[in-house]
Amino acid sequence: MAEQSTSSNVNITDAVLHQSPVINDAENVTIYYMQPPSTSSSDEDEWNSIRKLMKLCISYLEKEGKLRFQGVSAKQEIPVVHPAIHELNYYDKDTIPVDERYDPKGQNELFKNKIIREVCFQDLLDEKDKFISIVASAGSGKTVFSLRLAKAFSLPQRLCIHLKFMDANYEHPLTLRQLLLENMFPGHSEEFYTACFSWMQKNADKIVLILDGLDHPGWTGSSAIFLGGNFTKNKLQCLCPCQRPVLYLPEPARPQVTYALGDLSLEDTKELFLAFADEDLWKKINTTSSQMLSMCRNPLMLQMIISSKIHPSEDIGDASTPTRLFATVMENLKGSRNIRFPKTMDELVLKLQVLAFAATNNHKVILTDKQLKDVEINPTTVHDIIVQLHAPKHSVNCNLFDGSPTKFYFCHQTFQEHLTASYVVYAMPLEEFQDFVETSLFQEHWTVVRRFVCGLLFDLESKAVSGDLQMKKEILKKYLIQQLAIISEKIMESPPGDEALTDKLLNLYACVGEGKDSSIATKAAEHFPTTIELPQPMNSNLVPGFCFVLKHVTKQLDGLSLGLCRLDANSFHEIASVIKEMKPGQIGKMSIYGNRLQPSNIDDIIGLLRVVRVELMMWNCFDGDDGRWRSANQDEINKIQSALNKIQTRLEVLVDLLTKLHSQK
């Protein structure tokens, strides 16, 4: 949308409403329109015109419905992939929180904990004559998804119009006919528009509207909503939820059904990845930075990762960690045509860092327009990074379209966290930094930010540090090693299975892994607990840091439990690859039951036999065809027994609850 001055900026939604249609009854969310009189059209003229309009709609959908990535070109035809779809019970209470609280454990979503069930694409098509909102975070594929919905709804005898509001730049009031027809399909005759609109007034039950991006700056409403409305009695029923649900919709204005788009499946993620990059890059990420694969399940993050790998920054090197990835993304944004900040990019980044730190420090992910104005940022110049969220007035009886202070959030929570860490590293005064590290940084609230801070200060492979940065690095290193020693000692003193303590330790290991500093990893390994049970389940994002520290462990371990961690084949392979390089007999007892391994992991299991000296418990460690755990089959048992016979060991392998394997030597 073109940038406009404050004095001349027209609220587009208000412009539509002030002329035609006009809201008379906001409580019933009914829009009355007053269309100028026109010459009548015959039934034949109307049907001929509407068939032409249907063809225009299909042509538009074929053109727009292709997925495009900025910075990378498709190598093959783009596959049809669908994000997970969940039905929500969003408006289950009258009181809805004003702002989202920052949650370091996952992406904040207003619909979190409101999921009723997972549904399929067909379920949305089966909804008849309902107001349906589709909500999702930025980059989740709402536009592509809504275009596919439009194509699915475009059947003979039915008209589906997809309105893409993010491309709109209207400066004058619009009539309803102009909104639906003339601006969407320009260049046709007055007779064509008259005949089409006349047919639409008479056949509302055959019309579906998809309003994509209605929450874009200058508009009020939803990112994707389709309306099974009717024009009868000069009425068009209309509802405008937001990209995230509108915070304070009165009861009559709420959508009848709300769906949320989630992540892609791992299979769809790989299929989409390979459409833009080759198999070698997928394998490289899988091998060197597997935590990135889980990030790829969001299309926006997948785009950033591929672009950063294909167009790396010379100053940063290979984007093999989240810290390097986001640093590369910020470098690449300097060349974005959508960033129109009047000063230098470095000045803009500093302002964004200030915003991000203030929000995270105050436990918020929402920014106000006042906060943006205080640092002299116009949101229209940075909409690749900051997204606008419409928030009506707090009263549940408010006018749905009443103007109110706009709010903003970073397009992805991880942007906020990386920018917060960048503020701590590059902008926070040294004395304040020392106090912050000592009193705050190792609290749970700063878990993800801390990982980025460590990545920025410890990763000498990306760039050298000096002066205040070198002093900050030494301060951070001192307190990190102290925390590693304290938490490790508590784990050794506590009863087995204290997941809260183990989770803290693994998050500290993630900091070590993010920094890629072997000297710090060696210190962490000195304090590695001799007996440790990993969390049930274990977050796959914590696996790389755990492996980076484990690689430096030289002492004997009494026990290592991966039981019930629900590790997938990739995560288990990453851990097993480190263990098989350890000294013979270095681990006493080890359990791997309760994971989601594949037949290919049998070689990983065989690699453990030389290192585990007493007992390996591996029942129900494979993912069965029926979705349940299974134990090793006879062929897999034979391979393990054969491998046992080739090594000198007293190891017992429990392949199921009744069967133990021993070396036959």
TrEMBL record:
Organism lineage: Eukaryota, Metazoa, Chordata, Tunicata, Ascidiacea
Domain of life: Eukaryota
Protein name: NACHT domain-containing protein
Alphabetized UniProt keyword annotations: Leucine-rich repeat, Repeat
UniProt cross-references to InterPro entries, sorted A to Z: P-loop_NTPase
PANTHER family: MHC CLASS II TRANSACTIVATOR (PTHR47189:SF1)
Family matches, as SUPFAM superfamilies: P-loop containing nucleoside triphosphate hydrolases
